Amino acid sequence: MDSFLPLEPGQWVRNPAAPEWGIGQVQSVIGERVTVNFENAGKLLINAARVALEKVAEDGYGEC
């Protein structure tokens, strides 16, 4: 994956490849490195160039 969505702290996301993680809130973004606090997996450092995170609605449950 060559590109990734522009993400900002506070946004809600999910990893479609790991739905068991649940919904997560972006904590920080430094280049391609995104720290996300997932409801079922805790705080994880994600390489957004390799993992296709999907943005979800403000409440964390609808699609953007």
Polypeptide structure, described:
With 64 residues, the protein is mostly beta strands. The protein has a single domain, classed as SH3 type barrels (Roll), CATH 2.30.30. 0% of the residues lie in helices and 39% in strands. The chain is built from no helices and five strands. It has a five-stranded antiparallel sheet with strand order 4-3-2-1-5, with no helix packed on it. The protein is globular and about 25 Å long. The mean pLDDT is 88.
Characterize this entry briefly.
The protein is mainly β.
Radius of gyration: 10 Å
Main beta sheet: 5 strands, antiparallel
The domain tally reads: 1
Structural class: mainly beta
Helix content: under 10%
SS elements, strand count: 5
Gross CATH architecture: Roll
Strand order of the largest sheet: 4-3-2-1-5
Reading off the top of the CATH hierarchy, the class is best stated as Mainly Beta
Q: Helix and strand succession?
A: EEEEE
Judging from the principal axes of the Cα atoms, what is the shape? globular
